[in-house]
Amino acid sequence: MSEIQLVNAPAGVEGSGFFATSLDKAVGLARSHSLWPLPFATSCCGIEFMATMGANYDIARFGSERPSFSPRQADLLMVMGTIAKKMGPVLRQVYLQMAEPRWVMAVGACASSGGIFDTYSVMQGIDEVIPVDVYVPGCPPRPEAIIDGLMRVQQLVRGESLRRRGSDEYRELMAKYGIQ
């Protein structure tokens, strides 16, 4: 097991071994298997997400069986579908209402790049208003692709240091989006 190791006890300590790991790895492992997604679905990608939640694909196997429809109780924002420019401030407000740490997954071509809708009213990717951690391609993406995206978010969460959110790099990223 790469995250957690069983090591021999040092000299003078009774017992055959003790359980040792770093706090970052233990917290990352726990967080990665207890993500509470907030689905922000506006079109056909939302239907694929519903299929992902169903019995055939069962996203609950990955610890995400509790979709939260309150941003204050979610830590993974899953944006699916076409986002109009008028919805940009709403999406940003939902993102800001989420507690730290929070992650964002752009599901489908429309959320990632505007898709086929290169018009004045459609946002050409949600990364114009909020930072995105994982992009899931497809129009619409199959449930397998959404599950793969969730597994990539889990990898990010597992490897993220507890100190990352307080780092200068993270503050610069948030300042780029005008978030203090």
UniProtKB/TrEMBL annotation:
Topologically, how does it sit relative to the membrane? Peripheral membrane protein
What UniProt keywords are attached to this protein's entry? Answer: 4Fe-4S, Cell membrane, Iron, Iron-sulfur, Membrane, Metal-binding, NAD, Quinone, Translocase, Transport
The record ties this protein, via Gene3D superfamilies, to: 3.40.50.12280
Q: Which InterPro entries match?
A: NADH_UbQ_OxRdtase-like_20kDa (IPR006137), NADH_UQ_OxRdtase_20Kd_su (IPR006138)
Q: What is its EC number?
A: 7.1.1.-
Q: Which GO terms describe its molecular function?
A: 4 iron, 4 sulfur cluster binding; iron ion binding; NADH dehydrogenase (quinone) (non-electrogenic) activity; NADH dehydrogenase (ubiquinone) activity; quinone binding
Q: Give the residues the record marks as binding [4Fe-4S] cluster.
A: C44, C45, C110, C139
GO biological-process terms attached to the record: aerobic respiration; electron transport coupled proton transport
* Protein location: Cell membrane
Which intervals hold domain NADH:ubiquinone oxidoreductase-like 20kDa subunit?
A: 44-152
Main subcellular location of this protein, as a coarse class: membrane
Q: Does the keyword DNA damage apply?
A: no
What does the entry's cofactor note say about binding and number? Binds 1 [4Fe-4S] cluster.
State the protein's purpose. Answer: NDH-1 shuttles electrons from NADH, via FMN and iron-sulfur (Fe-S) centers, to quinones in the respiratory chain. The immediate electron acceptor for the enzyme in this species is believed to be a menaquinone. Couples the redox reaction to proton translocation (for every two electrons transferred, four hydrogen ions are translocated across the cytoplasmic membrane), and thus conserves the redox energy in a proton gradient.
Assembly with partners or alone: NDH-1 is composed of 14 different subunits. Subunits NuoB, C, D, E, F, and G constitute the peripheral sector of the complex.
Q: Which PANTHER family match?
A: NADH DEHYDROGENASE, NADH DEHYDROGENASE [UBIQUINONE] IRON-SULFUR PROTEIN 7, MITOCHONDRIAL
Tell me its family. Belongs to the complex I 20 kDa subunit family.
**By what name is this protein known?**
NADH-quinone oxidoreductase subunit B
Q: Which organism is it from?
A: Anseongella ginsenosidimutans
